[in-house]
Amino acid sequence: MTEKLLSPLRTRRWPERWLTRVLGAALASAAYLVCIPWDLNNRAQTPGSDHETTPVTGIGVIGLVLVLLALAAYFGLRDYLGWPLLLVAGPPAVLMQISFRTHPGPSDGMAYLWPLTWGFCTFLIGAGVLVAAALARRFRPQEEDSLDGLLYPHPT
């Protein structure tokens, strides 16, 4: 069973390969929706207070990071390097963009910060996913190359 869960996806049949990829994207989306609240408007800390608080918590962000890194490592181990970026970093970036577009920006004329925030967060998520996937690829079992015997003869 473990061999099937950790074998390269390119060796699996296409329904299993695509089902695994869709499940990974769904898990990345679910992690974002669970860990980051949809309503991103700041709230007054107490009624009449000048201090505002955000519904995004540190624990939610850490939870999202851990889930995305685990998914990136899993897909980095099993699939080509480009797939983790699409499957793991793509859904949270799209959901964040939808969230920013559907909620009004800051009321103090700082609406230009929303696209910058989205771009910065998308860059961080993408870079983290690529690093985790690349590190996981280093732990892949070495595969026999068809030209391996021609290029590097094995001593007999």
Q: Got a strand count? A: 2
Helix content: 55-70%
Overall residue-averaged pLDDT value: 79
Structural classification:
mainly alpha
Instruction: Give the termini distance in whole angstroms.
Output: 35 Å
Q: Strand-residue fraction? A: under 5%
Query: Mind summarizing the main beta sheet?
Result: 2 strands, antiparallel
**Global morphology:** elongated
In order across it, which strands form the biggest sheet?
1-2
How many helices does DSSP assign? 6
Order of helices and strands: HHEEHHHH
Unreliable residue stretches: 144-152
What integer value in Å does the Rg equal?
A: 21 Å
Describe the structure.
A hairpin with a 7-residue loop joins strand 1 and strand 2 (52-53). A two-stranded antiparallel ribbon has the order 1-2. The longest helix has 25 residues, at 113-137. It is elongated, with a radius of gyration of 21 Å. Helix 3 (58-78) packs across helix 5 (113-137). The protein has 156 residues and is mainly α. The protein has helices at residues 2-6, 14-35, 58-78, 82-102, 113-137, 148-151, and strands at residues 43-44, 52-53. Mean pLDDT is 79; it is low at 144-152. It contains six helices and two strands; from the N terminus they run H-H-E-E-H-H-H-H.
